[in-house]
Amino acid sequence: MNHIEFKGLRRQYQEQKEKINEIVMRVMAQSQYIDGPEVAELEKRLSEYVGSKYCITCANGTDALQLVLIANNIGRGDAVFIPDFTFFATGEMIPMVGATPVFVDVDPKTFNIDPVSLQNAVEVVLEEGNLRPTAVIPVDLFGLPADYASIIEVAKRYNLILIEDAAQGFGSAINEKRACSFGDFAITSFFPAKPLGCYGDGGAIFTNDEECACLIKSLKTHGQGNHKYDNIRLGMNSRLDTLQAAVLLVKFKVFIEYELHAMSNIHAQYSETLQNYVEVPYVPHGFFSCNAQYTIKLPDRAKRDGLKAHLLSQGIPSMVYYPVPMHRQRAFHGLGIKPVNLANSTNLCSTVLSLPMHPYLEPDEIGRVLSAFESFV
Ligand SMILES: *Cc1c(COP(=O)(O)O)cnc(C)c1O
Is it the case that residue 246 has pLDDT exceeding 80? Predict the structure, then answer.
């Protein structure tokens, strides 16, 4: 029996091996390892696909968030609102630039930031009067875009900068509008296990704002001015290298031609059976998920942990994303504002389970996941 991969990176490489090897060899021979032509080519293709004027690649998704915060002068005295149920990096850079993260509860069905809780959290910050509400970072968690129609209303009402964390959302959409185009800024990550991953670390920032795009380009290259040895501000060294851009050019093509559809089909097959027993991923009408994860919700922790152990005994990997809510991360102790009501987020941490999901799962493997599940219930 095949070993079922949780993310399918090995099989993906086997499928794309010739094209990837060829482009990697070309970059090696050409020897422009930093800022080679593949980087600009990738930025052009990604910005066209996403529908955003500018794409600025950088070293990883966490740097992308930090660059956006710095470019907007976010720092001491600023409150930045983020969902309580997400990967740590969504919030990590907020105290790093001196600002204060404010954790917001999520919707129990979509797992994404709840616009009503967001509005309440902004009101709490205003009442306390110590911080300026400055920005909100909704996350397209597990590949499902956040509820931007409602979030944009709140952002406008309070004049918040909207930063879309699409590290897990690349390839998703709401109707015709693609993820990475919903905010004033969007970021994504090319970490290998993300929807569009490279063979190391990588990230990108998207915006329509020309001035900010120039500023971010400068910030990611040592605060560069008109030429390489003209440094007009303090910046970072955060570039996507040419090899990773080349790998991404190959993978992006397959991603939009085949992989996104393949994952949608697997999602449908999983849900057809699983919806009879558990809460399956909820995709609101008009939304398209890139299926970064396929995450089900069990009634309680004992059932969730029991299922995880049972699947493992049948050779099926599964993961708990995420076991700890942001407001309970020790790194944030004393840095955030006193959490309000984060019941949904806290509950999800003990009830969710992500199943193997990647475009190269074979029908017999999907069958094995489903029958292992059925033998548990
Ligand atoms: C992975 C991830 C990031 C950070 O991306 P890196 O490239 O790993 O730095 C940020 N936010 C979310 C939601 C993520 O899943």
Answer: yes
